[in-house]
């Protein structure tokens, strides 16, 4: 009798464990249906509390044209920071931005914005040359330059793209980040991704799909 009780208890425990494991898999595989907002440099997700907007800006793109907030008005866009002579992560970032460009080449509501962090070197002709090298579609993807102060300020206080500045508050530090920042149609930050990792780029694309469903 005692053995039967132990056997029954063991069976019940196994069934319970399998059921819990199955439910966990279902929960983990469930796709998210909405994205949070990011209002500060610590990237703590906030739900239904948009506060921080990308501030006003005006830069010059690879065609010598002015690019500002109105250029992206009513658009979803991905922003990053690079420089044309970068031998490290920038080619990977640019390549992955190129993949995003290809994915949404026929969608006029998705745009890309790459800021140089070496404006004293990256002139409009150099940006033009870089754009040609990486098959940049100037109707969708803007490579921009401008004053160092303006570019570094928007990187740090607009996109929260400089982790070192967050830690040290040293304005003289050179900005170099692998972040892709997802901005919605209202100018709010909705996601941050490692632009060097294909798995994160795919996550970015899934999140763009979610944003496209918002009004």
Automatic annotation (TrEMBL):
It comes from the Bacteria. SUPFAM superfamilies: Thioredoxin-like. Residues 48-213 form the Thioredoxin domain. InterPro entries: SCO1/SenC, Thioredoxin-like_sf, Thioredoxin_domain. Residues 1-24 form the signal peptide. Keywords: Copper, Signal. Belongs to the SCO1/2 family. This is SCO family protein. It comes from Algibacter aquimarinus.
